[in-house]
Amino acid sequence: MNWNAFSSRGGGARGGIAHRAVQAGWRWAQRKGAVTAEQPGGHRFGAIGHGTKLAFPQGTVFGEPWIRLGAHCIIGEQVTLTAGLMPDLDLGPDPILTLGDGVVIGRGSHVIADTTVTVGSDVYMGPYVYITSTNHSYDDPHEPVGKQWPRMEPVEIGPGCWIGTGAVILPGASLGRNVVVAAGAVVRGAVPDHAVVAGAPARVVRTWDPREGWQPPLRTPAPAPIPEGVTPEQLIALEALAAAEPVAPVVADE
């Protein structure tokens, strides 16, 4: 009998029951394994705000006493958050990694804070973003790079930024307010407020001028905001109406 993982044969009723049991068990594990202020799961963060959740399964997390998470943050699955070069170090009285309120970090991202990393409020990150305050050095040509003492520089990401999928934020980077980092960009150095950066290494490709607006101009018009007072139920009804197929008119016989 030919069978593979995508075949519907060979399972029968027992396979369906097992599948549902596994799915139900995984959903239970996701609920119970999530980390929150009320359910820290053994993690002792310096602070974790109300409504913040680290999805299960978590990535590598250590140095929690020097990690402060604001309120209403969403930390995706397999996200690594670390403070210090390794676990069980005494890093002093001040926080090393700080997330403001409303920060969203996408699945599989890494925030490596060997020296201070500060992320402002309402920063959104796509999946697989890499932020680090440490870089390998290679000064000695005779010593393996991995054995040489790294260089460390603080990282600061201003409030309201959007960081696209797979972007890399290097030591010493300082992003202003409402900066857009394109997917796959590699950012170092200072980026001004209200700028768009792209490329590796990243460069500014668009900026905001208070008199002229975006330069170069945006290619698409701004989306129309939802009118004030519109309820979620009305939006759902409107979407259903738009998706409905038009009914052909009834023509009476002549």
List the helices and strands and how they pair.
Blueprint: H1 12-33, E1 47-48, E2 53-54, E3 61-62, E4 67-69, E5 74-75, E6 80-83, E7 97-99, E8 104-105, E9 110-113, E10 117-119, E11 124-125, E12 130-132, E13 134-135, E14 151-152, E15 155-157, E16 162-163, E17 168-169, E18 174-175, E19 180-181, E20 186-187, E21 190-191, E22 195-198, E23 203-209, E24 213-215, H2 232-243
Structure description:
The protein has 254 residues and is α/β, with parallel strands linked by helices. It has a domain at 45-140 and 151-177: Hexapeptide repeat proteins (UDP N-Acetylglucosamine Acyltransferase, domain 1, 3 Solenoid), CATH 2.160.10. It is built from 2 helices and 24 strands. It has a 7-stranded parallel beta sheet, with no helix packed on it. The protein is globular, with a radius of gyration of 24 Å. The model has no long low-confidence stretch (mean pLDDT 88).
What structural keywords apply?
alpha/beta; 26% strand; 254 residues; six-stranded parallel beta sheet; UDP N-Acetylglucosamine Acyltransferase, domain 1; 2 helices
Strand content: 25-35%
Counting helices, strands and paired strands, the structural category is alpha/beta
Q: How many H/I helices?
A: 2
What letter string, H or E per element, gives the SSE order? HEEEEEEEEEEEEEEEEEEEEEEEEH
Helix content: 10-25%
Averaged pLDDT: 88
Indicate the low-confidence ranges by residue numbers.
none
From the 3D coordinates, which CATH architecture of the domain at 45-140 and 151-177 would you assign?
Answer: 3 Solenoid
CATH topology of the domain at 45-140 and 151-177: UDP N-Acetylglucosamine Acyltransferase, domain 1
State the name of the first-level CATH class of the domain at 45-140 and 151-177.
Mainly Beta
List how many beta strands DSSP finds.
24
Task: Work out the radius of gyration.
Answer: 24 Å
Can you list the strand order of the major beta sheet?
A: 1-4-7-10-15-18-21
Give the end-to-end Cα distance, rounded to a whole number of Å.
63 Å
Name of the CATH superfamily of the domain at 45-140 and 151-177: Hexapeptide repeat proteins
Give the overall shape, derived from the CA principal axes: globular
Described by strand count, sense and barrel closure, the largest sheet is:
7 strands, parallel
